[in-house]
Recover the amino acids of this structure.
């Protein structure tokens, strides 16, 4: 709505003005019409009344004149027979004003003319004569063709003597009807006789309508009518003139008429002024309404215009309405609102800028700068500073400050910051007013220098700690509105958020690149650095060595002492490694107990072997955990750039291979990579893949080697031995794959399968009536240490419905060597499940009879290596005998493995060995063959053979 000029184009304006005008027009016009009608009626009524009076007067004078003529005639009648001396020419002349003719008409019809030209008078009729005899006069009229008809009056000369005839006069028209000029102006008079014939009309050509009216008229004697005359509509009044008592004639009718227009002349005048008056009134109303509408609508349109501008985010212009009414108030509050909105808007957009800065991960300093630049647009501060703790130097704040003026620069300075400062700030979370002149805090120095005398200081808080402060400088302590305070808080919070975001970014970066346990670079970061080192070395034709370090026996610490102890050892190892290197060397932890080092400058000064041995020595010193000494060492593989690889992956892989080689060849040493190693490594990778596939596809079978009880001779058990039905290499014995399965962890799945399969087979055999009481299964140490091993065994026993004592588990000494509380608990739990425990390969390795005492073992299996030299080798015999004795003393059963001959069997029997196992009895057999064997043995055959031996 555009109202300033031509505001009547506004529809509202037009509507209101039209309404005003209409409101005025209707009553004015109604009033005018009513009064017009009233006046017109009144005028017409007056006109009629006036005409009636005129007609009355005219008829009265007519009557008077007739009476006067009658009287004069009575005077003349005496001289009718003999006109006397009065009838001089002079007298006659005077008579001529009144009479056109005077004559005496005798009874015989003889006429004596006394005045005027002789003319015939009709003889008197009997009626006339009778009338005359009564002394009355007789009027005779003849119809006037136009103008006036002659009126004749007759009177008896002597009423007593009618034979004397009558005096007849013809009255002068001018005398009788009067001079038409002397009649009232504009009024016409007509006189009609009783028959309706017009006797006289004052106008020369009377309207035929009058004649018609006269002819038609009957009653009453007085009245009014209108007719159309030559010059427009006329109004007329009539009166009857009664002549009968004196004159023998019926009454005449006097009609006075006037043009209606004359009567209504005042109305016409009224009419002509009436329209301008209405127009004037309407004009006044229109003008009045236009001014009123304008006074309302112009401010309104300005307000609308202002609202539109505010909608377009222009809050700078003000609405100019100066009236001191509600509109003025509205405009004033609109302007006030606009100012606030403008501030709010600037505040929001500044905050949005800051948020963008925070979100786009600009560093804290950028965000602080944005805040410092934006803050004055939001808060009416004279100068401002934002101080933020330097994250690298805790007692220093970086202070960004800015003075007044739109393009004042942002200055940066460093200020010391004490704990007291931050503690004091922390007390005033809502901000505090400080006297700038008295304040001594260094971080407010910048604002003070910029001329502020009063300071409003707000702490910037992150994670409950003060990390900075916003200082607003003012000329004097001002009243900060709640809005201003809230916005300052917003800004301080945002700086806090930026600070937090930066801290978090740093943390994320750190987590992504560093190992949290040791603080060393992690694999990702190390590879990054290695790539960079490679690029440098390539450019500068430098050589460097990559050391791949793996701690020896770390697993033992971890498994026996727990992860916390393991972590301590790793941290200690890391610090020893770091201590053994130069700053230019890169040390990283790849994961687990694996570390890597890049040793630079090897061409000029350093031998990587020396560095490696130095590190091994450092790691060989005892680690004290829980006040117990643990001896670890390290195996190190070394790959050289560019000899052993040109890429990071290649170097890492080859150093790793060399490290394995170091482990394989005795640990605690370093080995340089050689190409040959790769072939071994490749073969290993291939077999691992092969084995994995075999496990997946179930290429394994179990063979069973029976065990005989030497007392009863019965087959009391069978040991399950694993075979790999290899698609190309045929049936493979465990020596070809058990080691790999253990290293790769595949043993877990494989071992579980063996347990399940062996138990199921035992069940099947027993179900088929084969008298085999139990089956023993080899379990490798790694498999045994699985946390869910016992529960897996329990599940299998339950599912296969193996009776108690049906399953024996063979473990090796190596398990007991590192045994911790978990292992002991597992053994106890297995026993509780009814599982017997056999200690396999006894006599080899670290064999210690104390294990037999410490651990809940049921069976001891004497290793084949002792049995094979029996009975001739003395030491073997002695050891075997001792083992049997000792075991029996501890209430353990003894099994001799690898019994190949009858002598051996007999000898062992003599020594009191409980069971035997070996080719002498049977080779390991497929399940079906075992069934046949056991059935055929029937518990007796072999015993007979032993007895025989
Ligand atoms: P082991 O537990 O000592 O098993 C006995 C080994 O001695 C078997 O070898 C068996 O064939 C062999 N043997 C038995 N009697 C004689 C004999 O009179 N003379 C000779 N020369 N050898 C005899 P095998 O089957 O090759 O098993 C080798 C090793 O593989 C086993 O030694 C055992 O430690 C391991 N093993 C076998 N099956 C499994 C299994 O399912 N799990 C685990 N973890 N290890 C297994
Ligand atoms: Ca065994
Ligand atoms: Ca064995």
């Amino acid at each position: 709505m555009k109202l300033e000029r031509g505001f009547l184009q506004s529809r509202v304006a037009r509507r209101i003005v039209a309404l005003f005008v209409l409101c005025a027009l209707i009553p004015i016009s109604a009033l005018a019409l009513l009064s017009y009608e009233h006046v017109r009626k009144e005028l017409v009524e007056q006109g009629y009344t006036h005409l009636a009076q005129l007609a009355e007067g005219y008829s009265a004078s007519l009557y008077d004149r007739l009476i006067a003529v009658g009287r004069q005639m009575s005077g003349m009648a005496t001289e009718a027979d003999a006109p006397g001396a009065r009838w001089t020419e002079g007298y006659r002349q005077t008579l001529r004003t009144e009479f056109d003719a005077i004559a005496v008409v005798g009874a015989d019809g003889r006429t004596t003319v006394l005045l005027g030209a002789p003319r015939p008078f009709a003889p008197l009729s009997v009626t006339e004569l009778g009338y005359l005899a009564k002394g009355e006069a007789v009027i005779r009229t003849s119809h006037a063709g136009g103008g006036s008809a002659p009126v004749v009056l007759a009177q008896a000369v002597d009423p007593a003597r009618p034979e004397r005839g009558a005096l007849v006069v013809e009255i002068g028209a001018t005398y009788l009807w009067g001079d038409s000029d002397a009649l009232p102006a504009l009024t016409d008079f007509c006189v009609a006789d009783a028959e309706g014939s017009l006797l006289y009309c004052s106008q020369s050509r009377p309207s035929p309508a009058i004649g018609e009216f006269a002819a038609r008229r009957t009653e009453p004697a007085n009245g009014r009518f209108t007719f159309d005359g030559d010059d427009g509509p006329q109004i007329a009044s009539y009166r009857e003139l009664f002549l009968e008592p004196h004159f023998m004639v019926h009454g005449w009718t006097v009609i006075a008429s006037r043009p209606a227009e004359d009567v209504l002349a005042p109305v016409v005048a009224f009419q002509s002024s009436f329209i301008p008056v209405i127009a004037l009134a309407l004009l006044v109303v229109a003008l009045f309404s236009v001014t009123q509408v304008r006074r309302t609508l112009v401010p309104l349109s300005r307000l609308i215009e202002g609202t539109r501008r505010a909608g377009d985010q222009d809050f700078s212009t003000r609405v100019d309405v100066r009236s001191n009414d509600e509109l003025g108030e509205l405009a004033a509050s609109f302007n006030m609102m606009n100012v606030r909105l403008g501030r709010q808007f600037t505040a929001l957009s500044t905050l949005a800028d800051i948020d963008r800065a925070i979100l786009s991960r600009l560093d804290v300093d950028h965000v602080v700068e944005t805040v410092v630049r934006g803050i004055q647009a939001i808060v009416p501060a004279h100068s401002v500073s934002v101080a933020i703790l330097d994250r690298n130097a805790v007692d220093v704040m970086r202070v960004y400050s800015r003075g007044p003026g739109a393009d004042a620069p942002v200055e940066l300075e460093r200020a010391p910051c004490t704990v007291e400062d931050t503690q004091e700030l922390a007390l005033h979370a809502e901000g505090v007013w400080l006297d700038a002149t008295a304040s001594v805090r260094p971080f407010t120095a910048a604002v003070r220098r910029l001329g502020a005398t009063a300071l409003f200081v707000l702490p910037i808080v992150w994670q409950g700690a003060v990390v900075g402060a916003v200082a607003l400088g003012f000329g004097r302590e001002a009243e900060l509105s709640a809005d201003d305070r809230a916005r300052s808080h917003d800004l301080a919070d945002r700086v806090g958020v930026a600070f937090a975001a930066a801290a978090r970014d740093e943390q994320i970066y750190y987590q992504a690149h560093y190992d949290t346990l040791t603080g060393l670079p992690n694999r990702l970061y190390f590879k990054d650095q290695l790539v960079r080192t490679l690029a440098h070395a390539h450019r500068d034709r430098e050589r460097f060595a990559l050391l791949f370090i793996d701690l020896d026996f770390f697993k033992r610490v971890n498994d026996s002492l727990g992860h916390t102890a393991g972590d301590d050892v790793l941290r200690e190892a890391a610090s020893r490694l770091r201590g053994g290197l130069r700053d230019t060397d890169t040390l990283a932890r790849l994961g687990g107990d694996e570390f890597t080092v890049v040793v630079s400058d090897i061409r000029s000064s350093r031998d990587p072997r020396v560095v490696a041995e130095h590190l091994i020595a450092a790691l060989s010193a005892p680690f004290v955990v829980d006040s117990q000494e643990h001896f670890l060492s390290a195996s190190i593989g070394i790959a050289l750039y560019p000899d052993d690889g040109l890429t990071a992956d290649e170097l890492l892989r080859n150093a790793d291979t060399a490290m394995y080689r170091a482990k394989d060849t005795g640990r605690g040493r370093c080995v340089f990579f050689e190409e040959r190693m790769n072939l071994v490594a490749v073969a290993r990778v291939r077999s691992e893949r092969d084995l994995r596939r075999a496990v997946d596809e179930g290429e394994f079978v179990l063979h069973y080697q029976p065990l005989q009880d030497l007392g009863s001779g019965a087959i009391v058990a069978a040991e399950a031995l694993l075979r790999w039905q290899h698609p190309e290499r045929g049936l493979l014995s465990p020596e070809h794959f058990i080691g790999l399965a253990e290293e790769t962890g595949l043993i877990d799945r494989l071992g579980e399968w063996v347990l399940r399969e062996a138990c199921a087979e035992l069940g099947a055999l027993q179900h088929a009536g084969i008298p085999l009481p139990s089956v023993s299964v080899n379990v490798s140490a790694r498999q045994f240490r699985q946390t869910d091993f016992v529960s897996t065994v329990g599940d299998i026993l339950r599912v296969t419905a193996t009776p108690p004592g049906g399953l024996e588990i063979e473990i090796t000494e190596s398990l007991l060597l590192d045994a911790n509380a978990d292992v002991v608990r597992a053994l106890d739990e297995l026993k509780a499940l009814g599982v017997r425990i056999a200690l396999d390969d006894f006599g080899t390795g670290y064999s210690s009879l104390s294990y037999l005492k410490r651990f809940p073992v049921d069976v001891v299996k004497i290793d084949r290596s002792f049995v094979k030299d029996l009975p001739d080798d003395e030491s073997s015999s002695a050891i075997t005998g001792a083992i049997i004795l000792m075991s029996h003393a501890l209430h353990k059963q003894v099994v001799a493995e690898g019994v190949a001959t009858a002598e051996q069997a007999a000898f062992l029997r003599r020594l009191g060995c409980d069971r035997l196992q070996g080719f002498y009895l049977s080779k390991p057999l497929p399940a079906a063959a075992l069934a046949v064997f056991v059935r055929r043995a029937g518990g007796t055959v072999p015993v007979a053979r032993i007895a025989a031996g």
In short: Confidence is low (pLDDT under 50) at residues 939-949. The first strand starts at residue 99 and ends at 105. The first helix runs from residue 11 to 77. Residues 719, 778, 810, 840 surround calcium ion (ligand 2) (CB under 6 Å).
